[in-house]
Amino acid sequence: MALQSMIMQRGISSIATIAILAVVGTLMYLLFVGGSNTGVSTKIHAGELYPVQRGSFDISIPTSGELSAENRINIHNKLESGAVIIELVDEGSIVSKGDILLRLNDESIKNEIRNSETSVTSARDNYETALASLAISEKKRDSELAVKQLAVDLATLALMAWQEGELVGTRLSHALEVQTAEKNYQRLLKKYESSLRLYEQKFLSKDELDQDEISLLNAEATLKKAKLGSTIYENYNLLIEKQQKESGLQQAKDELERATARLELELKSSRGNLVAKEDQLQRQVEHLEKRNQQLELCVVRSPESGMVVYASSLGERREEGEPLRVGKSLYRNELVMTIPDSSKMNARVKVNEALSGLVAKGQQAVIVCDAYPDIVFSGEVLSVGILATGGGWRDPNRRDYTVEIHIDNVNQVSLKPSMRCTAEIFVERVEDVLFVPIHSIHRNGGIVWVWAKESGGFAQREIVPSRFSESYVEISSGLEEGDAVLLREPSPSQVVGRLDVESSR
Questions:
Q1: Does the predicted TM-score (pTM) go above 0.85?
Q2: Are 470 and 381 within one domain?
Q3: Same domain (yes/no): 317, 219
Q4: Separation between Cα atoms, residue 447 and residue 462, nearest integer Å
Q5: CB neighbours of 91 closer than 8 A, spacing ≥ 6?
Q6: What is the CATH number of the domain that holds 89?
Q7: Does one domain contain both 118 and 89?
Q8: pLDDT beyond 50 at 2
């Protein structure tokens, strides 16, 4: 059966249900009582006899609860600290987007802003000082390293000049000196040998020979001295000069390396100080921005159009909450009010724990609000609560699950959150079965029976019931289509048969 037909079936009032039963009973009376001469008492009234018929009925769960908006905008206190309300819109007011909902005391925040502005100014000065100090350190590094690099370059050039100039010149000088001394020695040696021959021939005096000998000895000494000077230079002075030049270059390089490390360390310290000052400035700026944002949050505006509902009016224990008012202190992130979307409403109903397993998402339902008793709304189960709630001190043993039901066609009336409502959740559709009204069923121990019409009156007939709703019971066996059952206890004169109920217990 379609939802519309279910609404038609389930949405009728109790009076209408009784009227239908009365009509059916009248017909059955005419068929089974009025037109026969079976002897059944004429005290059977219309509506007391029900024909066993094959058909369909719904298994449903009746429940109750209240309405809630499917979507709502929650307004919280977004101030980091507590706040005091100094202006408040009336509950139930219809507001437009951007309208002021409430104002909070902002004096303490303004004081914090003034202090924060001073801190930002001080932090910015410290940052700029650190920035200037870093620039000076960088220029100092560049200048000093340039000087040290120049010393390295000069020492390198000095080493190259010695290697390619001084060393070569000195070696050439020593070689020339040795060659000159060698040639002079050879010349004087030949002269002395000639003078000696002349002396032996008496052509030269002894003094002249001695003079040539002395010259030869001087030349020999000069040659030895030249050779010794060259040897000493190659073996000693050259190494000393080389080590001096290389040492000078290495010292310049070491000094450059030490200066680089020292200056980089100084720069690192300056950069670290700059980063610290920048972080401090950023923190102070962010703190100031946050304080300004907090100041803006002291004026709460409606993000959307709708009706204002105080948070103190929400929930099952709303009567215990402190009403929202001017002068009330709010704690951080406290829910202050909501703006429900009345175009999408849900029914929040309670289903007993014993029946909760029958309810599932997607099941159809009908809802009736106490404010509009003549209007039946269709709906669909959205969710079943995960955790059960207790019945409180009034009924500590009761356990209920909250079922959320979406309500269709809500625009035909003005529904509001917290309106009381009843609902009927359709669990199952029983198709093509024999069924009788539930109040025609009697039970004693393990025996279930009905008062069935028989010739001359009514007799107890044992039946096997199956599925049942709030109104009807499916009959698995014991009755057939066309039988009739009495909807009350018959009078003793109407009883024509009884079961041995007591012995079967």
A1: no
A2: yes
A3: no
A4: 7
A5: 308, 309, 310, 313, 324, 337
A6: 2.40.50.100
A7: no
A8: no
- CA distances from residue 297 to 32, 55, 77, 323 in whole angstroms, order as listed: 78, 64, 8, 22
Name residue 347's amino acid: A
Rounded Cα gap, residues 157 and 136, in angstroms: 31
Q: What is the CATH number of the domain that holds 465?
A: 2.40.30.170
Q: Edge-to-edge strand order for the sheet containing 83-88?
A: 299-301, 100-104, 83-88, 329-330
Indicate the pLDDT class of residue 122, thresholds 50, 70 and 90: very high
Report the amino acid identity of residue 291.
R
Residues 286 and 396 grouped into a single domain: no
The answer to whether residue 331 scores a pLDDT higher than 50 is yes
Read off the CATH number of the domain in which 249 is found. 1.20.1270
* CA–CA distance, 434 with 464 (Å, rounded to integer): 11
Of 359, 357, 341, 340, give the one whose Cα is nearest residue 349: 359
Please state, rounded to an integer, the average pLDDT across all residues of the chain: 85
Q: Which domain holds residue 155?
A: 109-296
* Nearest one of 465, 419, 408 to 6, comparing CA atoms: 408
181-190, 211-220, 413-422: the lowest-pLDDT one: 413-422
| The two three-digit tokens of residue 389, written as one number | 């709630």
Q: What is the mean pLDDT of residues 345-360?
A: 90
Residue 136 in tokens: 């000076």
Residue 342 has pLDDT above 70, yes or no: yes
Q: Identify the pLDDT of residue 315.
A: 60
- State the pLDDT confidence band at 503, using cuts at 50, 70 and 90: low
Domain end among 287, 309, 339: 339
Q: Measuring CA to CA, which residue among 387, 421, 381, 423 is closest to residue 404?
A: 381
Tell me, rounded to whole angstroms, the distance of Cα 272 from its chain centroid: 34
Per-residue confidence at 223, pLDDT binned at 50, 70, 90?
Answer: very high
CA distance 157 to 301: 79
What does the alpha-carbon distance between residue 424 and residue 49 come to, in Å, rounded to a whole number? Answer: 27
Q: Are residues 78 and 22 part of one domain?
A: no
pLDDT in tens, 151-184: 999 999 998 998 898 889 998 999 999 999 999 9
Task: Answer yes or no: are the C-beta atoms of 51 and 482 closer than 8 Å.
Answer: yes
Spatial CB neighbours of 239, under 8 Å, sequence gap ≥ 6: none
Mean pLDDT of 127-141: 94
Structural domains in the chain (count): 3
Split at pLDDT 50, 70, 90, the class of 504 is low
Do residues 367 and 487 share a domain? yes
Does 453 lie in the same domain as 332?
no
Three-state secondary structure of 31-83? HHHHCCCCCCCCCCCCCCEEECEEEEEEEEEEEEEEEEECCEEEEECCCCCCE
Question: Are β-strands 457-462 and 495-497 bridged in parallel, bridged antiparallel, or unpaired?
Answer: parallel
Q: Does one domain contain both 163 and 236?
A: yes
Nearest C-alpha neighbor of 409 from the set 384, 383, 372: 372
